[in-house]
């Protein structure tokens, strides 16, 4: 039973990483377009900033003062389209995802003039940052892909662990 559980978790992670890594092998347009289907990388980043402003920044804004001094974490940053939006409001943005295309995303964000971020690959269930080190965690259209309630619960515990006192979480 234990190994069936682990297999299911591993399959979930392998399925996503293979799909995303294969897209990157075709070319960068296919990779970035997969996350927003706009057909155009510039458009993907514009809509990402728009989605970030409406669905994350707007609801949390009454509760988070001085965003320009805060560190936030994007769980499941994908191609970085939302993270690109977050970089414009916050001091530092950490992106965590299971895929291995950190460098491709970093290069694209740098080319767009963004440098206040750090991208990390994780194991699909824990968040590799220190306890009490982040002011806000957000995640956009990621949790509906998580097939195991154990992973879901683990991520909630991880979010509580890494948030500073009075930190905020926003899961969409
Ligand atoms: C639909 S995409 C959304 C990407 C990004 N948040 C956006 O809005 O463009 C889902 C993302 O979740 C990531 N993901 C799936 N399962 C995950 C897990 N268990 N832990 C972390 N990321 C995961 C995938 O690799 C993918 O990048």
Explain what the structure shows.
The chain is of the alpha/beta class. It has a single domain (2-171), classed as Vaccinia Virus protein VP39 (Rossmann fold). It has helices at residues 2-26, 28-34, 41-60, 81-87, 102-111, 149-162; strands at residues 71-75, 92-97, 117-121, 134-139, 163-171. The chain has a 5-stranded parallel beta sheet with strand order 3-2-1-4-5. Helix 3 (41-60) packs across helix 4. The model has no long low-confidence stretch (mean pLDDT 92). The protein binds S-adenosylmethionine. The site of S-adenosylmethionine has 18 residues, from helix 1 and helix 4. Residues 16, 20, 35, 76-78, 81-82, 97-99, 124, 140-142, 145-146, 151 line the site of S-adenosylmethionine.
Radius of gyration: 16 Å
Count of domain modules: 1
Counting DSSP H or I runs of 4 or more residues, the number of helices is 6
* Fourth-tier CATH superfamily name: Vaccinia Virus protein VP39
Total strands: the figure is: 5
Bound molecules: S-adenosylmethionine
Instruction: Based on the coordinates given, report the CATH architecture.
Output: 3-Layer(aba) Sandwich
Present the secondary structure layout.
Elements: H1 2-26, H2 28-34, H3 41-60, E1 71-75, H4 81-87, E2 92-97, H5 102-111, E3 117-121, E4 134-139, H6 149-162, E5 163-171
Helix pairs in contact: 1-2, 3-4
Bound molecules: S-adenosylmethionine (SAM).
């Amino acid at each position: 039973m234990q190994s069936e559980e682990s297999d299911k978790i591993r399959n979930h992670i392998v399925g996503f990483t293979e799909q995303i890594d294969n897209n990157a092998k075709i070319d960068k347009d296919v990779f970035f377009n997969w996350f927003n289907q706009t057909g155009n990388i510039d458009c993907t980043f514009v809509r990402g900033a728009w989605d970030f402003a409406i669905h994350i920044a707007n609801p949390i804004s009454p509760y988070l003062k001085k965003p320009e001094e805060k560190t936030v974490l994007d769980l499941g940053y994908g191609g970085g389209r939302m993270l690109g939006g977050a970089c414009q409001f916050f001091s530092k943005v950490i992106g965590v995802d299971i895929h291995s295309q950190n460098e491709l995303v970093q290069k694209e964000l740098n080319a767009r003039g963004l440098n206040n971020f750090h991208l990390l690959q994780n194991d699909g269930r824990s968040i590799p940052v220190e306890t009490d080190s982040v002011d806000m965690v957000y995640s956009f259209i990621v949790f509906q892909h998580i097939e195991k309630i154990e992973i879901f619960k683990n991520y909630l515990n991880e979010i509580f662990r890494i948030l500073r006192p009075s930190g905020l979480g926003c899961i969409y």
